[in-house]
């Protein structure tokens, strides 16, 4: 779907994906009073999960 839209809209696939995902998040948080705080916490969780995943990927078993 995204490659097709990317071609029609003459937009980079990565950029289009970013736009679509940000729209999804924005509309999900639109009615929340503390949306900025939710985004900050989510950003921290993403960083934590990426770091945790990276450390787990380096384990030699």
Chart the SSEs and their pairings:
Blueprint: H1 2-9, H2 13-29, H3 35-57
Q: What does it look like?
A:
With 61 residues, the protein is mainly α. It has one domain. 79% of the residues lie in helices and 0% in strands. The chain is built from three helices and no strands. The mean pLDDT is 89.
Shape: flat
How many helical elements? 3
N-to-C series of helices and strands: HHH
Helical content class: over 70%
Q: Which band does the percent of strand residues land in?
A: under 5%
Low-confidence stretches: none
Structural class: mainly alpha
End-to-end Cα distance: 39 Å
Number of domains: 1
Radius of gyration: 16 Å
Number of strands: 0
Mean pLDDT: 89
Biggest β-sheet description = none
Summarize, please.
This protein is mainly α and 61 residues long. The protein is built from three helices and no strands.
Question: What would the keywords be for this entry?
Answer:
61 residues; 0% strand; mainly alpha; flat
């Amino acid at each position: 779907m995204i490659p097709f839209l990317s071609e029609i809209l003459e937009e980079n696939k990565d950029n289009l994906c970013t736009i679509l995902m940000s729209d999804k998040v924005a509309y999900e948080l639109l009615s929340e009073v503390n949306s900025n705080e939710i985004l900050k916490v989510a950003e921290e969780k993403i960083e934590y999960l990426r770091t945790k995943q990276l450390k787990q990927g380096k384990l030699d078993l």
